[in-house]
Amino acid sequence: MKIAYWNDEIETMPRAGLESIQLIRLQKLVTRVYALVKPYRQKMDAAGVRPEDIRSLADLQRLPFMVKNDLRDNYPFGLFAVSLDEIIRLHASSGTTGKATVVGYTEKDIVTWSNIVARALVCAGAHKGDLIHNAYGYGLFTGGLGAHYGIERLGATAIPVSGGNSKRQISIMKDFGATILLSTPSYALNLAEAMDSLGVDPKSLSLRVGIFGAEPWSENMREEVERKLNLKATDIYGLSEVMGPGVAMECLLSDKGMHIMEDHFLPEIIDPDTGEPLPPGETGELVFTTLTKEALPIIRYRTRDISRLIYEPCSCGRTLVRMEKVSGRTDDMLIIRGVNVFPSQVEHVLMSVDEVEPHYQIVVDRVGNLDTMQLHVEVGEQFFSDKIKQLQGIRQHIQKEIKDYLGITCKVKLVEPKSIQRSEGKAQRVIDNRKL
Ligand SMILES: [Zn+2]
Predict the structure, then answer these.
(1) Region of 423 on the Ramachandran plot (φ > 0 left; ψ -120 to 50 alpha; else beta)
(2) Which of 22, 47, 191, 272 is the most buried (most CB within 10 A)?
(3) Is the pLDDT of residue 337 over 80?
(4) Is residue 381 very low, low, confident or very high in pLDDT (cuts 50, 70, 90)?
(5) Could you report the per-residue pLDDT of 393-426, keeping only the tens digit for each?
(6) Given this model, what pLDDT does residue 98 score?
């Protein structure tokens, strides 16, 4: 198989060359931010670090972190490094918990981002001539428009469907002959289910690759999506604070992780409790510094995503470091009776149980002083009518698997097929009723 690259010079550059580009860009960035972004200059002054102290990539760790609250505290435009005249686009997070975070882009930022997304699409095997069904939400969320501009930059055909109305999505997919699907993984499963109820065989569609992101998903879920939609499922990573989709992308040959677009985003892994950088290869919280962004340069942004960096060469020939599939979020992490539980771990267990569907909710409560965890899981259509005794067997089986894998006792409630609310975007996996 001939491997295609969007920018082969950068994507296959020996690491020493790449690191010298990163250092030059980092020094320029820190100088610029220090001069132009007052809240960050104050943080640097408080930490006793000046731009000229950054002499090597290792000096990065002398710089203070940025967190989501820095964006909120400086709402809406307080961290911008350019005047509003230079901004040609704004995006914002939904702000379900507190104030929204606003991000801005200059004309050059949009060009850079489009090229990054085009590079990511090529990484997943996309090319001119592909019809790309973009089911990421269009609007203030970066997913829809971010992917859209990359598709056009690549020269493929963008189908800007956005989210919602699965029935219409499927007929468009079918009639137009879409070859690539972009969506959240949970929405992809949603589409598979809708196809099933409409009697549409995924094999009758032209879908070849799915590019799924915006929420953590397990390897087992990948198998499920691949089987149900008859395509190769790949993982894309991004977050609006850093840029949007395309920060990292899985290639078709990697079996462990996504290539980070390192000439634009400098990654680190830190211990989420102490903030100390961890040795290469260890699992911890992912931190990003943007190297080329003009409007909203970001230094050491704590993503809250749990991952690890893989420096071993990839068989695709790209030298860009890979990040392992995000296994959870530090702020999604549930502490139940002292045990750390990630929804993705629960998902991993459920995917290994044949009789249930990958639709679930974790309900956490506190009874007296004791945390309780209840799992609501959908039973497959073909098993639901089974005898009570058999359902009891399934329930006990799940309880045992969870106990073995997570070391925690939970109640399992089997619910009717299709009774758990389907998401159009990110799935709500956890309901935490504890008043802490
Ligand atoms: Zn690769």
Answers:
(1) beta
(2) 191
(3) no
(4) confident
(5) 999 999 999 988 888 889 999 998 888 888 766 6
(6) 59
The tokens for 158 are 């963008």
350: left (phi over 0), alpha (psi -120 to 50) or beta: alpha
For residue 259, report the distance from its CA to the centre of ligand 1, in Å: 6
CA of 318 to the centre of ligand 1 (A): 5
Average of pLDDT values for 177-197?
Answer: 93
Ligand 1 center to 211 CA (angstroms): 15
CA 315 to ligand 1 center in whole angstroms: 6
CA–centroid distance, residue 6 to ligand 1 (Å)? 13
Query: What token pair was written down for 200?
Result: 């549409």
d(CA 221, CA 347): 8
Return the residue matching tokens 């820095």.
70
| Tokens (6 digits) for 370 | 């004791």
For residue 399, how far is the Cα from the chain centroid? Answer: 29
Q: What is the pLDDT of residue 436?
A: 54
pLDDT value of residue 435: 65
CB-CB contact of 156 with 131 (8 Å): yes
Q: How confident is the model at residue 163 (pLDDT cuts 50, 70, 90)?
A: confident
pLDDT of residue 97 exceeding 60, the answer is no
d(CA 146, CA 105): 11
Number of residues that make up the chain: 436
Q: What is the DSSP letter of 86?
A: G
For residues 35 and 371, give the distance between their C-alpha atoms in angstroms, rounded to a whole number.
49
Question: Alpha helix locations (H) across 331-420?
Answer: 343-351, 381-384, 388-406
Rounded distance from Cα 239 to ligand 1 centre (Å): 21
Question: Ligand 1 center to residue 12 CA distance, Å?
Answer: 10
* pLDDT tens digits, 244-282: 999 999 999 987 899 999 999 999 999 988 999 999 999
Distance 255 CA to ligand 1 centre (A): 9
N-to-C CA span, the chain: 55
H/E element holding 357? strand 356-367
Measured in angstroms, how far is the CA atom of residue 38 from the centroid of ligand 1?
39
| Phi and psi angles of residue 424, each rounded to the nearest 5 degrees, phi first | -95, -15
